[in-house]
Specification:
This protein is an alpha/beta fold. It has helices at 17-30, 47-53, 67-77, 84-89, 92-105, 137-144, 150-171, 182-185, and strands spanning 2-7, 34-41, 59-64, 109-113, 129-134, 176-179, 197-198. It has one domain (2-204): Rossmann fold (3-Layer(aba) Sandwich). It is built from 8 helices and 7 strands; from the N terminus they run E-H-E-H-E-H-H-H-E-E-H-H-E-H-E. It has a 7-stranded parallel beta sheet, with helices on both faces. 31% of the residues are buried.
């Protein structure tokens, strides 16, 4: 099957959760499917990083987002009901290019990771689409309000409110939906949320292997993750 995958970040190096999840899904899907990968990015990947992803795809398209346009979109977001992050990642020039890619390649299925990418593909009804929510982002932002202050607190609270509505609204544009945990699934406020497939993250046993050396046990459990991401703190 020919799959078009759209990501909000280039999926390498693997220092963030969304990139890690996307990378391993691409590895798995590439065994049986042809992948056309479209990545949004603030910074173009190095040649070394591109070489990690290129073998997984029949086509790789990387779109560097304009900082000036991002600023303009965020100003426009003040008069919109859509989440700020949806505006931040959306640019019409990129949308036209993705539209041309879809029309040219005619994928059998479209896979979008995170609600912030959905504006690019939501209106393609000729083929089925899957949205990977990953997390219930509305809850992540509502939790963040407690540690935010001043204008940031207002913006975070507003983003949480917008995400509740948008995560519900965008559901109906996609035939299939996935999320990391049942807890997050229950925080998507759509009447058909029970149809969301829970696809948890796993452990890469090729990377994480038990030590062969006989060492005294000093730790029962170590949490590794992006500690700059508030829910991980």
């Amino acid at each position: 099957m020919k799959l078009l995958v759209i990501l909000s970040r280039f999926p390498y190096p693997l220092e963030k959760g969304d990139k890690l999840r996307a990378y391993h899904q691409l590895v798995h899907l590439s065994h049986d499917h042809e992948i056309i990968l479209c990545c949004l990015t603030d910074k173009l990947p190095s040649e070394e990083d591109r070489n990690k992803i290129t073998p997984l795809c029949s086509e790789l398209h990387v779109f560097k987002l304009s900082k000036i346009k991002q600023l303009g979109r965020l100003c426009y977001a003040a008069f919109s009901s859509k989440p700020f992050q949806v505006h931040y990642f959306y640019q019409k020039s990129v949308a036209r290019k993705i539209q041309q890619i879809i029309q040219r390649t005619a994928p059998a299925h479209i896979y979008a990771q995170l609600v912030r990418t959905t504006e690019y593909v939501k209106n393609f009804h000729e083929m089925p689409k899957t949205l990977d929510y990953m997390d219930a982002l509305n809850k992540n932002y509502s939790r963040r309000t407690a540690s935010s202050k001043g204008i940031l607190k207002f913006l975070v609270k507003e983003e949480a409110k917008r995400l509740v509505a948008y995560e519900n609204l965008i559901f109906d544009y996609f035939e299939n939906h996935s999320i990391i945990s049942s807890q997050d699934k229950n925080l998507i406020y759509h009447e058909k949320r029970e149809s969301i497939s829970v696809v948890p993250n796993g452990v890469d046993f090729d990377y994480f292997t038990p030590s062969q050396e006989s060492e005294k046990k000093t730790t029962d459990l170590i949490f590794t993750g992006n500690m700059g991401y508030l829910p991980n703190e």
